Amino acid sequence: MPDFAVNLSMLFTEVPLAERFSLAAEQGFQKVEIQFPYELPAPQIASLLQQNNQQLILLNAPAGNWQTGDRGIACQPDRIEEFRQGITQAISYAKELKCSNINILSGISPESYSLEIIENTFIDNLRFCAEAFAQADIQLLTEAINTQDIPGFFLSSSAQAFDLFRKVDHPNIQLQYDIYHMQIMEGNLINTLQNNLDKIGHIQFADVPGRHEPQTGELNFGNIFQAIDDMGYSGVTSLEYNPSTSTAESLRWIKLIAERE
């Protein structure tokens, strides 16, 4: 089985964020990720991680105003200064929390700019982050997201991501490969992982459709996890799903899949 982490922004939401660390620890998770940890002071999160003997392995950079529809601002030409201020905050949190990965969301393409300008803005911001993160010993990740859930999201396929990586031309950039999003957009999951393993720094998953736990949809996670093990992937694979029941009950798939191996 892969090296699992749990996303505390989507699981254990029965309680406030500060109480989710201990619940995750009770279920055996020593690695956690948080989409946007900024609602809590970094020292408080550091204390919670220490109390529960956990490691924060991933956080997202600030993504604009989520409540008003932002889903990242890295591709938006008129918000470069705001984006880079958010990067300063993300680096500060990552340093204090000893988090080695920061994920950047491209955001939705603004209608008032050409595709060329939008892409160049995203490339420039990725290049800026790649260097800034490298100086802080942090890995830059970016994520392709399906355009059914978020219409207009700029980065929406693995092929597009890898093409952008060539244009960014910096060693400190990898893809956060989300199995849920990529099953919707392109399928061919195992082959894509196998053929691009050197460009993939983190994996997340949920079943399709519904974005719930494994064994609620169409994906054969037993085969997928076995393939991830067999191909020699050395990173973390994270549970990032909306439980269809209580979080604790939604974790039963782990034992069921393990028993079949």
UniProtKB/TrEMBL annotation:
Query: What GO biological process terms are annotated to this protein in UniProt?
Result: glyoxylate metabolic process
By its UniProt entry, which Pfam families does this protein fall under? AP_endonuc_2
The answer on whether this UniProt entry bears the keyword Transcription regulation reads: no
The EC code for this enzyme is 5.3.1.22
Q: Which UniProt keywords apply?
A: Isomerase, Pyruvate
Q: Where is the Xylose isomerase-like TIM barrel domain?
A: 21-255
Which domain of life, per UniProt? Bacteria
Q: Does the keyword tRNA processing apply?
A: no
Active-site residues (renumbered): E143 (proton donor/acceptor), E240 (proton donor/acceptor)
| SUPFAM superfamilies from the UniProt entry | Xylose isomerase-like (SSF51658)
GO MF annotation terms: hydroxypyruvate isomerase activity
Family membership, please give it: Belongs to the hyi family.
The name this protein goes by in its record: Hydroxypyruvate isomerase
Organism the protein comes from: Amphritea japonica ATCC BAA-1530
In the UniProt record, what gene is named as encoding this protein? gip
